[in-house]
User: Which sequence fits this backbone?
């Protein structure tokens, strides 16, 4: 089987290739988010008009939590490692819970909730299609 760029363009990308590109794009988003969180920790950026030392403890905890998890998830997603996907799903669901269940502390952010739920849904669709059509393609080969 030829895997040249020309061959891929002619036949179109497989769902597995689309899943890999999607995970790498999510890795870049997580890298950016992690760097923003670290910028808040070191005092290069404020959040809601407050710098890190002046924030409530709940906000500080959330920022440190996501600063660490975002960068770990970014590395795992970029490497296409299964643990990277697990960490990304965990941190995404934590973000959703934070802005729904604990909305009185962290504020309700419907656009952020929609982004993460949509990102998880798209991942699950691509994973399903990748598994389903990957098996059919393997049977034909």
Assistant:
């Amino acid at each position: 089987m030829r895997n040249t760029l020309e061959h891929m363009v002619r036949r179109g990308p497989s769902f597995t290739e689309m899943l890999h590109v999607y995970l790498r794009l999510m890795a870049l988003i997580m890298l950016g988010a992690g760097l923003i969180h670290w910028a808040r920790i070191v005092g290069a950026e404020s959040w809601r008009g407050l710098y890190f030392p002046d924030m409530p403890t709940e906000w500080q905890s959330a920022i440190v939590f996501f600063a660490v998890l975002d960068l770990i998830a970014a590395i795992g997603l970029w490497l296409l490692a299964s643990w990277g996907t697990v960490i990304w799903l965990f941190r995404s669901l934590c973000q959703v819970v934070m802005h729904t269940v604990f909305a009185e502390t962290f504020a309700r952010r419907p656009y952020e909730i929609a982004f993460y739920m949509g990102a998880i849904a798209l991942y699950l669709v691509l994973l399903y299609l990748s598994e389903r059509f990957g098996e059919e393609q393997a049977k034909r080969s």
Summary: The radius of gyration is 19 Å.
